[in-house]
Write a structure and sequence with these properties.
The protein is an alpha/beta fold. It is about 35% helix and about 10% strand. It has a single domain, classed as Response regulator (Rossmann fold, 3-Layer(aba) Sandwich). Strands 2-1-3-4 form a four-stranded parallel β-sheet, with helices on both faces. The longest helix is centred in the last third of the chain and has 22 residues. It starts with about 25 loop residues before the first strand and ends with a helix.
Length: about 170
């Protein structure tokens, strides 16, 4: 005796990058305070490192200097390392941006609290940019002179490279 059966077709849409690799996340948001030094530097570096993926990288500030361009010394340090920074205007971190992000990377431990104060439901997707360097914090070089910017750049570059290796799989 043959039982009637049917096959139900299910359409599943997976996050797949341009090369056909499965990706778990599509949007990375990088956060600092003013959104003119550290986060746009990290945004430029991570966007470049993930250029062959469909991962969208953006940045915002907890107390952004809204509308301001990347700080001139931060831009000069990026350029000194061979990067051509994208045009940038600082934006204020808003709950919607937090909600839309799959991963939020912050520079300092206190930034985790700042993000969670705006959107407590983001717990679990807010991590340190320096996570893979022992949860290392990356201090703000703003108004501290060129050596501070070069130091921050070196820490950001190391952290971004570690994240890029994990995200680009």
């Amino acid at each position: 005796m043959v039982k009637n059966s049917y096959v139900r077709q299910v359409h599943v849409t997976a996050n797949v990058d341009k090369t056909g690799k499965f990706i778990l996340l599509k949007r990375v948001l990088i956060v600092c305070v003013g959104n003119i030094c550290r986060s746009p530097t990290a945004e430029n570096l991570l966007r470049g490192a993930l250029a062959h993926s469909d991962i969208h990288v953006s940045s915002a500030g907890l107390a952004a200097l809204v509308g301001k361009p990347i700080e001139p010394t931060a831009r000069a340090v990026l350029e000194a390392h061979g990067h051509s920074p994208d045009e940038h205007q600082a934006i204020q971190l808003e709950p919607q941006a937090i909600s839309e992000a799959d991963l939020i990377l912050v520079m300092e431990r206190q930034h985790v609290s700042g993000v969670l104060n705006l959107a407590p439901e983001a717990r679990g997707k807010v991590l340190m940019l320096g996570k893979w360097q022992g949860e290392r914090e990356i201090g703000d070089p703003y108004r501290q002179g060129k050596p501070a910017f070069f130091h921050a750049y070196a820490l950001i570059e190391e952290a971004v490279n570690a994240w890029a290796q994990r995200l680009a799989r």
